[in-house]
Amino acid sequence: MTSAPVHAKGLEGVIADESAICNVEQTALIYRGYEIADLAAHASFEEVAFLLLIGHKPNASELKAFKDELIAERELPEMIKQNLKHAGELVNNKYAVPMDILRTAVSVLGHLDPDCQDNSAEANLRKAKRLLAKIPTVIGHMQNSIEGREFVAPRSDLSHSANLLYMMTGSEPSPEAEKVMDVSLVLYAEHDYNASTFTSRVIASTLGDMHGAVTGAVAALKGKLHGGANEAAMDMLSDIRNDIGPDNDAAKITGWMHKAFAEKRKLMGFGHRVYKNGDHRAPILHALGRKAAEARGEEFVKLFELGEAVQKIMADEKTIYPNVDFPCGMTYFTMGIPVPQYTPIFVASRITGWCAHIMEQHANNRIIRPRVAYIGPALRNWND
Ligand code: CMC
Fold it and tell me: What gap in Å lies between CA 185 and CA 43, rounded to an integer?
């Protein structure tokens, strides 16, 4: 009898291909040679988007041209706007969550994109820029519909981050809020073969088109074990707050955590397949979010203090550390962003990484088609 071939559950540790886009190490996260702390401190989201999509740091004129192209593509086709008018009805009646609305909008954007069926490098880059420019408008219009407001049209004088916040609320964000959003988008932009990016590459590897690959990636990102963790982390903190009351009573927090451990619950926003000593993005966003909380007032500082207490117990008792989604939940909450939009905002950033990977796949393709170790019934006859 032959034993089943060895397999890696969850593809843990499997090196599936080569990529020049991103390097995820225990000690560093690197986009095309630049470390994430360096980028978070010195690069704007548009610069990082250019770096990921085009492959090098833009000079001033390249950056201006890139920003102008994005601004020119912010408006949505009329058909999508008509569809998004129903977003509020669907979300408020719980038929859909914002990630579902965004997934459908990306798919329909494909129907309306003149390059949809063209997988050439030039067409892919044009499509990537259009998606990057239009996704914030989808999120903004969707949120307007959910709140029963007229659509807030994109503005051509605002950055990607400021315009996203502006379209969601109708108010121009403060420079501080714009900066926090921008850094969060820089941190979220790319992360090698994570589940959604891998999904997009599998679809691209069949010579599927970019909009199809991104639609699949959005579906993959929605899950709580992946991008959906930023919403789930905030929901978990709200649950803790409801259970323990308004004060951060240490004994009550410990009690809540021990009950979760006893029930073998996965705590959202903690753990990582690759990073075993902590996610480099988390402290960067935590520091920024905490500063924003200090500016907003006690309720928000207490949320961060609760998060810090939870983090300490996880570190001390489980040696499991927060990933970027944990501070993201607290940070976006502090900024007043509705929780169900946290993961769509992740899409507004990760679209850059996905599109870079789809282009890399199409440029040097071999279909992704692994095997599985069969463990079903032995051979048998239908007529027995
Ligand atoms: N809470 C409690 N225990 C955990 C957690 C957690 N969040 N994460 C890992 N563990 C435990 C896990 O139960 C296992 O214990 P044991 O060996 O006793 O069974 C051990 O740590 C190893 O974990 P694993 O399940 O083998 O880890 P994985 O690589 O399969 O999964 C993960 C990684 C991120 C899906 C997982 O840590 C998790 O479910 N975290 C919560 C969801 C989350 O925050 N996801 C965001 C991921 S990172 C950013 C992103 O993609 O957006």
Answer: 11
Catalytic residue among 115, 141, 325, 362: 325
Going by alpha carbons, the residue nearest to atom 8 of ligand 1 is: 271
In contact, 342 and 335? CB cutoff 8 Å: no
Ligand 1 mutation pick, 196, 198, 218, 270, max ligand atoms within 8 A of CB: 270
For 18-224+343-363, CATH gives 1.10.580.10
Set 272, 280, 286, 362: catalytic member? 272
Atom of ligand 1 nearest to the CA of 266: 1
From-to residues of CATH 1.10.230.10 in the chain: 229-334
Residue 226 is a catalytic residue: yes
Query: How far, in Å, from the CA of 194 to the mean position of ligand 1?
Result: 14
Instruction: Please tell me what DSSP assigns to residue 133.
Output: H
Whether residue 272 lies in the annotated active site = yes
**In the predicted structure, residue 64 carries a pLDDT above the cut 90:** yes
What is the tens place of the pLDDT at every residue in 261-291?
Answer: 999 999 999 999 999 999 999 999 999 999 9
In the chain, ranges of CATH 1.10.580.10 domains: 18-224+343-363
Indicate whether 2 pLDDT > 60.
no
pLDDT of residue 6: 81
How many Å apart are CA 221 and CA 191, to the nearest integer? 12
- Separation CA 229–CA 231 (nearest Å): 5
Kindly list the protein residues whose Cβ atom lies closer than 6 A to any atom of ligand 1. 10, 194, 225-227, 229, 266-273, 320, 323-325
User: Is 111 marked active-site?
Assistant: no
373-382 tens-digit pLDDT: 999 999 999 9
Mutate to test the pocket of ligand 1, among 185, 191, 224, 225 (most ligand atoms within 8 A of CB): 225
Q: Which CATH number fits domain 229-334: 1.10.230.10, 1.10.10.10, 2.60.120.40, 1.10.1760.20?
A: 1.10.230.10
Cα 258 from chain centroid (whole Å) = 30
Nearest to 268 by CA among 300, 297, 292, 239: 239
Q: Distance, CA 268 to ligand 1 centroid (Å)?
A: 8
Q: Which residues pair with residue 270 across a beta bridge? A: 322
pTM, rounded to two decimals: 0.97
Question: What sign does the CA torsion over 146, 290, 31, 233 have?
Answer: negative
- Position 310, amino acid: V
